Amino acid sequence: MFDMGFWEMVVIGVVALVVIGPERLPRVARIAGLWLGRARRTLSSVQDEIRRELKADELKEILDKQARSRPLESILEEPAKRTASPASDAAATRAPARGEPSGALDESAATTRPTERDTSAS
Q1: Which of 1, 55, 77, 108 sits 20 to 30 Å CA-CA off 25?
Q2: Tens digits of per-residue pLDDT, 68-79?
């Protein structure tokens, strides 16, 4: 917490011994230690609370960003689209019935293959 070396502690101890006196110094040192411990615990709890709040804010930002990029409604509608798409794909790939116009692939195949009319004429 504070950058105090050995010699700074010795100077503080000598000044405290001179000012307070040798009979009251142990009691004052004990009280000072208790107050210092309480201050450290309080500071530690405040730091932990701040860290938790920052993590909670980061999590909220991540969730908001995710909700903006892909809303819940689109996620819920996605399985419905998946079940609907195979039916539309099956209709597009089925063979045309009699009398229905054929697809583009069938038309190109019909132009390359001779028809019955063409073979009977030759």
Answers
A1: 1
A2: 887 666 767 776
